[in-house]
Amino acid sequence: MRCTRGLEWVAAAELTARFGARIDEVRHRTLLCSVTALRAELLESRVADDILLYCGEVVDVVHQRTAIGTLAEAVAELPLRTVLETVMKLRGARGSDTFDVVVSILGRRNYSRMDLEAAVGPVIAARTGMHQVEHGTEAIVTSEVSWRIHIENDIALVMLRIGRTPTHRRGYKTESSLGSLHAPVAAALSLLAGLAPGEMLFDPFTGSGTIPIEANALEPRICAIGSDIDRKNVLIACRNAHRAQSAAGFIIADAACTPVRRRSVTRLVSNPPWAQAVHPIGRLITHPDDMTKKLAELLAADGRMALLVSGNSSRLPTQLQSRHGMRLIHSQKLSLFGQWPDLVVLDPQGAGVRPLVLPGSLWAADIAASHQEVFPRQLPL
Asked: Which terminus of the chain is less hemmed in, N or C, by CB atoms within 10 Å?
C-alpha cells in the first residue's frame, strides 16, 4: 500500500482496524501488509493513495547505469503472469490489453525513471502478452493495468495495482476548487480528530467539500458540515456530495463570522488557506484575529481540532494556544505536492489529558515516545 509521506502510521491504523491487515514492514510511503484473503473491500481504504499486490523484490539496484539491465533481467524472473491473473480474477474481468509501468526512485541515481520504464516495459509485455503504453499518450488513459516499481536504497519493490484506478482518485471528485485537499489527507485529518456516532464535524474552509465528505464516508452517523465564503466552492461541494451519496451539508459563510452555534462543534477539521494557491479573503484580511477566536469559540469543551497548516496559516496553532486556551497534543510534517505542511491536533485546555487514539489501538503518544524520527520506519503494533 502507498500513502502520503508522514501518514504511514495513520494508514496502518486504518488497515488493521477496518480490514484486519497485519503490517509487516513500513517503508517510505509504503506499507507491506498481509491479509488472510485478497478482497475488493481493500479498495475502500480512505487513507491509502494506492493499493497494490506484491509481486517481488529486486536487490542490488545500484546507483550506476548497470542497474537498468539488472532490474530488467530480475523482473523477468518474477511471477508477473500469476500476479496479473490474481488481480484480473478479483476484478472479474480482463479489461484492456494494455498496461503502463511507473517507476519511483528515492534519492539520486545515474539514470532516470524513464530509463527503467523503457527497459522493464518490454519484459512485462513479453511475459504477459500485453502491450505497453507510453506516458503522455492518449492510450494511457484507457490502460487499467498499472505496474508500480518503487526503488529505495538498493531494493526495488515490484507491485501491481489492484484497482483500475488509484484509490486516491475519488469518483465523486469530478469537480474541484483551487487548492483542494488531497482526499486521503482529508480522511486522515478526520480520523485524527476522532470520529464517533453523533459527533458534529465542521470545516470552515471547505473548498470543494473533501473533508466533510471523507469524514462522512468513514463514519456515516456523524453530522458533517462545511462552509466556504465562495459561493462557487459551495456549489461544487454540494455536487461532489451528491455524487458521493454523502449526507454532508454545506453553507456559504465567512469563517470569521460563521453562523454555526458557539460550543456546538465537537470535531473541527480544516485546511485553512496557506496564501499560496488559495489566498485569504473576507474578514481574514481585515480582521485575521476574529477567525482564530471564532474557531476556538466554536469548539465544544470536550471537542478536538485537527488542522493542516502552512505558510499564512502556520501561526494558527500558536495563536490558538497562547490566546484561546488550546493545547497542542500532536504535530508532524507531511510531504504534500512538494511542500511540507504541519498536521496539528489541538484540544481545549479544560478537556483534560486525552490520548490521541486511532482505530486498531495505535496511539500517537506511544509512537512519539518510541521513535525519534518524524516518520517512524517501524510501528509499535
From this structure: C
